Input
Amino acid sequence: MKAELHSAEAYRLEALRRYDILDTPREADFDEVVEVASAVCGTPISVINLIDQGRQWFKAEVGLGVRETPIDSSICAHAILQPDLFIIPDTTLDHRFCDNPLVTGDPRLRFYAGALLQTAEGFPLGTVCVLDYKPRELDETQKAFLRLMANQVMKLLELRRIAAAEHSARLRAEEMVSEKETLMREADHRLMNSLQLVQSILAVQSRSASSEETKAQLDMASNRVLAIATVHKQLHLSGSTEEIDMGDFLRRLCESLKHTAPAQIDAIDLTADAAMLRSDMASGLGLLVAELVTNSFKYAYPLGQHGNVAVTFKQGPDGWRLEVSDRGRGLPAGFDVDRSKGFGMQVVKSFVRRLNATMTVSSGPERTAFEIVSHRE
Output
């Protein structure tokens, strides 16, 4: 069923246009929102979705691989007509979506949850949403997190709008550089505060968890939020919004990750070329390194056995190569990365797809290595 238009559609579209966000390139700040939303909510798909005239356009996405789709099949077009959170536990049981081509055909979406992106005047622009291929629910922590991320996205949009208005109204080119840096620092500060708040919520939930399995899941989500916060912090310290020196960036990232390592990890050995990559690519690589290094922290060395984790990044004429390895106890017998259903490995494979790369895994009695190689764009 196609959604009805908003009761003040013309004014809503005018409000959306004022942000001058449609059809802009991907940006690390927005990409990190969907990465952490997918990780915390445990869904393969997460989107920052803006409802335009005749289409829905994605400022950031994980798990879809496209930047826009027609409005006729949009679930978010229904979501902007609802206050607060809009949750569909099973799309096949809802008369509005049971015949939707995205439900009946590929990608066969079964679950949807979206938090409203709304202006101060009350006009809905779109959603921060998560989707899954199976029916499910969100717990109260995950619901609170989606609302928090929607508020964060609106703050980022407002900062962009203010920066653009001041640029055209009164600032000279030199003053604009300083103003943009100030605004970006403010956005970084607010995002870091949001991530710290999410991690605090997860930590409180973990301490009061009723079972070890629930506690382990909450601790895992907390570690991923910490990793994303670490990547964001290191991107900010790199001082560029367009291109990042990967050698310096990975050095800072590994130093931060070492502070979170358990006692049996002696060091993170880094070898990295000083290659310049786009900030969105650097962000994806940073998240991938954080996930793989954290996995080594958790599984490579049992209590009483010490060792190192190695990170290698090389830039060649045909692209880059990343390797994360350790000399621990190795992967379980019969492990198949392509068939693995573990959430951590699903996150890793999602990052690899986003980077347009391929991954190979080798594991023996003396060394385990994850090698990721980029494809030529």
Summary: The chain has two domains: 9-184, 242-374. The chain has ten helices and 13 strands. The first helix runs from residue 9 to 18. The radius of gyration is 21 Å.
